[in-house]
Amino acid sequence: MSDTRGRLLDAAESLYAARGVDAVSLREILQEAGARNATAVQYHFGDRAGILRAIFARHAPDVEARRHALLDAYEDGERGVRPLAAALVRPLAARLADESGRAYLQIWADVLNRPAPLVPVAVLDDPRDSLCRWRDLVEPLLEEDAARLHRRFTAILYASIELARRARSGPRTDDRLFTSYLIDVVAAILGAPVSPETRRLAAERDAARR
């Protein structure tokens, strides 16, 4: 990575985490990075979506390796909803250990928690991606109505928001209790039954769409 590109990425990561993606201009990233060339961001990243992809790519190798290892263990015999909840949470929770990782968690939650994603979530269609693999393994454990109502995305979003909240509160000496409890709650989200009221309302919605 070139020195300029690295400084720009560090600046964007820090500013996006502190103020939110929407509140930071490309010019501010240039200024924070001390870049003299006014077109440096466009040259290295193209646009804001390109910067975000680069931030996510910076952290992806560690997250992917950790999640694939946990999913391997699941497929080797460690069955149940909680191991899959752990496979979602633990690779991200590991990023709480350093400043760059905490920034990443806040940015990821910001990007995910929107009506329309800032970056196309193409990884969900890529079987090599750990999150795609995770979704495929979770699906057979869900009630049909829970899967139809996007229970997996609910779990992903909740975990991301809670991890971002933890990241914003600063470095902690020990995140083990937080992580274990978050896994418990995500497992509960995945395994919660769909109520008769929700089934009825979902059926009414589906009928109205026909």
From TrEMBL:
Signal peptide location in the record?
A: none
Segments spanning the bilayer are none
One Pfam family, please name it: TetR_N
Enumerate the spans annotated as HTH tetR-type domain: 8-55
Keywords in alphabetical order, please: DNA-binding
Q: Does the keyword Metal-binding feature in the UniProt annotation? A: no
Annotated SUPFAM superfamilies: Homeodomain-like
Q: What is this protein called?
A: Helix-turn-helix domain-containing protein
Q: Which organism is it from?
A: Actinomadura monticuli
